[in-house]
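I would like you to sit down with the pair of lines that follows and say whether tokens and residues agree.
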Amino acid sequence: MSRIVTGIKPSGTPHLGNYFGMIKPALALAESDDSVYFVADYHALTTVRDPQTLRDLSLEITATWIALGLDPDRSILYLQSDLPEVCELAWILGCVMAKGLLNRGHAYKSVVDDNVAAGRPVDDGVNTGLFNYPLLMAADILLHAADVVPVGEDNRQHVEICRDVAGAFNAAYGNVLTVPEVRVHDGVAVVAGTDGRKMSKSYGNVVPILAAPQEVRRTVMSIVTDSRRPEEPKEPSSCNVFNLYRHLATPEESARVAARYLNGEIGYGETKELVVEAHERRLGDARNRYLDLMDRPAQLRKLLLDGAERARSECSELLAYARKATGVLS
């Protein structure tokens, strides 16, 4: 049985890109593997500045995992900040990690590129947390001796950096850390947003997973399309609306709508209504479970604390090995 580890950052309300790119594949792995899930609130500190917002979003993420099918009795679910061991391991790893790996981190490079293009200083607006983000993520993974890390395509690089760090540590101190495998679910690694770009909170183009039907409808109706009329043949694979529909609908439903596209028998407005209906069929029950959980914040907090205790009982031994290997006195 493989150990899988995955987390999600509470920097905004979870959206369909999160669901199909990472959450759904991760939950599927949990059915047959040993699994650890965490809410990455320390990672969120790089961008979230309001304390109450961070608390609220952390509980939203927790309720979302459970509403979508995570069983906290079977899998470990905890809040990153409830497990300080991860920060200790991050420091240890940072002492063998090449700075060049962090220089190549895509989030950091993106800010640097924007600064250069705008004529600003290279590191303008860059906090150390952003720069060290891949290091903390490596500690999240390696602390639990993960075999497999399911991520969206945009986080593949972070796991590859984690593998490099584990290799460097093992080369220096012996075979202490497990080098994990990155797993990106084929076909749904990237979900297009309402403007055609990758669905992302930073672009403001998301369709929420568990929002009320009226909010889902409002965001779906804002999906950008071209001006072709319903009777004009259209290529479904190049349509933002259809590409979202095919994630939510069954293969048979998708095939029928694709044929109508090619034959000029459907307009974008009708397809958008089909997206809204498919979203409700697919996720309506989960939304109701989510709302029930959010009405019980104390229960959610207890679940996270219990999960942290379970995580600590498992990872304390690995941290002790790492400390001993480096010569840190216990």
In short: The chain has two domains: 3-191+297-326, 210-290. Residues 297-326 form the longest helix (30 residues). Residues 33 and 247 are 24 Å apart (CA to CA). The mean pLDDT is 94.
